[in-house]
Write a structure and sequence with these properties.
The chain has 227 residues and is an all-alpha fold. It is 75% helix and 0% strand.
């Protein structure tokens, strides 16, 4: 058996293996502490590019989803206005149907209701809902059946638009979920699998340290030659 003391090849080899194990254990610790499989470009350069692209897609989709909520909220306001006007027209129909015919009091209430319709239509910015277009400007020329039909048509259009936006929003949310899942599959770490790697590195580190000690002790056999 050759005994050399200037270059302890066994110790150098054990030290190199120990350093590699330490690097792997540090990487596992970083992944376990961050929850990410990719913490820097060195972990997976192509995967990082793909994950970042997917993350950007998710952010854009979230903006698109938000953009559908704004007109949806506006439609809800318009629906409320139309429902209020519909209730007013129904009251107008009751006034017209009074057995004693249009009295001064009845006419006054009818005119006040027509003014309220105009106020709501003006505030809503909708020309089509005013009393003139609904043919209920005056009690003598009012056609409440036509007015109710027109308001119903407007409500139908609002409902159709709401449904379209709801479907759009739901579709975008599905895209966000699926795209996020795809990004997670690339970027996020499998905690269970990485814990296995970490435990392995811990054991290897302990074993490597022990072998380095043994490699250093082996050269001490040279001392026996001097006894």
């Amino acid at each position: 058996m050759a005994l050399r003391i200037n270059t302890n090849v066994a110790a150098l080899n054990a030290h190199r293996q120990l350093l590699n194990t330490e690097v792997q254990m540090n990487k596992s610790m970083q992944k376990l502490s961050s929850g990410y499989r990719i913490n820097n470009a060195g972990d997976d350069a192509s995967g990082l590019v793909q994950a970042n692209s997917l993350r950007t897609t998710v952010r854009v989709l979230k903006v698109e989803a938000q953009n559908t909520l704004q007109p949806r909220a506006q439609l809800s306001i318009e629906e409320g206005d139309a429902n209020t006007i519909e209730n007013i027209v129904e009251r107008m129909a009751e006034l017209i149907a009074k057995a004693d015919g249009p009295s001064g009091e009845t006419t006054a209430e009818f005119n006040a209701l027509a003014d309220e319709i105009d106020r709501i239509a003006l505030a809503a910015g909708n020309v089509s809902l005013n009393s003139t277009n609904l043919v209920v400007a005056t009690i003598g020329t009012a056609n409440t059946a036509t007015a109710l039909s027109n308001v119903g048509s407007i409500l139908g259009d609002i409902g159709a638009s709401m449904n379209t936006l709801d479907f759009t929003y739901a579709n975008i949310q599905t895209k966000i979920e699926n795209t996020s899942a795809q990004e997670s599959a690339i970027r996020d770490v499998d905690m269970a699998a990485e814990m296995v790697n970490f435990t392995k590195s811990q054991i290897m580190l302990q074993a490597g340290t022990a072998m380095l000690v043994q490699a250093n002790m082996s050269s001490q056999g040279v001392l026996s030659l001097f006894q």
